[in-house]
Amino acid sequence: MKIGIIGAGLGGLFSAAILSKKHDVTIYEKLPYIGGRFTNLDYKGYQLTTGALHMIPHGANGFFGQLVQESNCGAKIINSNPDGLFRINNTNYGFEELKKLVSFKDKLKALKMLADLKLGTVDKDISFGTFLEGISIAEKVGNSFSGWALSLSSYETPMDEVMAISKYYHKFGGPGIPLGGCKGIIDALEQVILQNGGIIHKNYIVDKVYIPENYQEKCTINDENEFDIIISNASPIITQKISNLNFINKNKMPIPSKGIKVSIGSRNKLITHNGVVFTTEAERLNGFNQPSNVDKSLAKEGHNLIMAHATQIKNNINDEIDLVLEDIDNLFSEEFTGHKKEDYKILAIQTYRDECPVNHASNGTDLKPVVNDKLYLVGDGVKGKGGIEVEGVSLSVIEVLNHINKL
Ligand SMILES: Cc1cc2nc3c(=O)[nH]c(=O)nc-3n(C[C@H](O)[C@H](O)[C@H](O)COP(=O)(O)OP(=O)(O)OC[C@H]3O[C@@H](n4cnc5c(N)ncnc54)[C@H](O)[C@@H]3O)c2cc1C
């Protein structure tokens, strides 16, 4: 089959790397670089990113890891250990240790909550925030987790999603960091696509997609390129805008999630492990990691790269950034770290909303990846249920590949 792919983000590149084994694949990417919100930005010796925090939610073992294997791209993901620690009163606690901090009565309540979550006997229609109500530590821990992983407050996070996430966490485990950071994955996928004879056009904006009703007729991109099927890695809203089809129900529009990322360079290790520190008591910040603990090349020589993430809650972006910077000042103050403020430096503050959000569809508002037998969507506007970020992107690719294989 001749397959046209719009966009060279993770969704487009994973699809192309696997489909190019058997099919003729051509990718059209509007930017001068590939990788979308999942690649590195070289800045003063540090590998910052266009989006992601150099982290794969279920490490080498999740859906993303499965696609890395299936594409034979050879990229390597190092699983984090510990997965994450929770910062409470300036001390880091593992998940199990949190029990020490609650009263006997709350401990019983929390154990029941966890058991219900594992057994799936929770009201799926409530929010995660509502589920956690009544145990103050659980509320803070849950909010920092949903903020870090989904860029949603706990009250914006559907319980249905949390239950699916919990199932996958028990199955696959926690996060990991790819060698070379995000770009380590992108470079590896690009190599496979080119080796398989796939074509990647950069600086090519797709502004017209035609999907015929008649199966014999060809699909076209910008009136000049004919394909049997088209996969779009552009957001569902953009795809609908440029295509001749109307496939989004007006009452079920995807709602994007917004966020703020701060990249920090530090002479000292502000984290000693390769997992996440969830900042449960911060005003806005949800957590931070130090990916250079896995791959030193992500930071300037003799330095460390720390990435901090916050969900954007209110509309005034400048106020939101101020809150995040205050959180960073407090968390990394000399009093708590023993290191002087001059020893770390804010490298970049990046905001993600509008055309470039954290997710084109926040979890629970995703559309379905298969529009019909000729048009498919991949990416974070069509994540499968319980798919955290690039795991959700991978779920969309898996669903599309399964459908195409049956054609
Ligand atoms: C601050 C932040 C932190 C994050 N942290 C993490 C993390 O640590 N771990 C994680 O798993 N996920 C993380 N994510 C989410 C993750 O980065 C995204 O979910 C993922 O990169 C999205 O991939 P995608 O393929 O859906 O889309 P994109 O990366 O957006 O790719 C789509 C591509 O399509 C191209 N395109 C669009 N329209 C057209 C057109 N008309 N013609 C041609 N090309 C077009 C775009 O230029 C782009 O290259 C984070 C995101 C942000 C913003």
From TrEMBL:
<protein>
    <submittedName>
        <fullName>Phytoene dehydrogenase-like protein</fullName>
    </submittedName>
</protein>
<dbReference type="Pfam" id="PF13450">
    <property type="entry name" value="NAD_binding_8"/>
</dbReference>
<dbReference type="InterPro" id="IPR036188">
    <property type="entry name" value="FAD/NAD-bd_sf"/>
</dbReference>
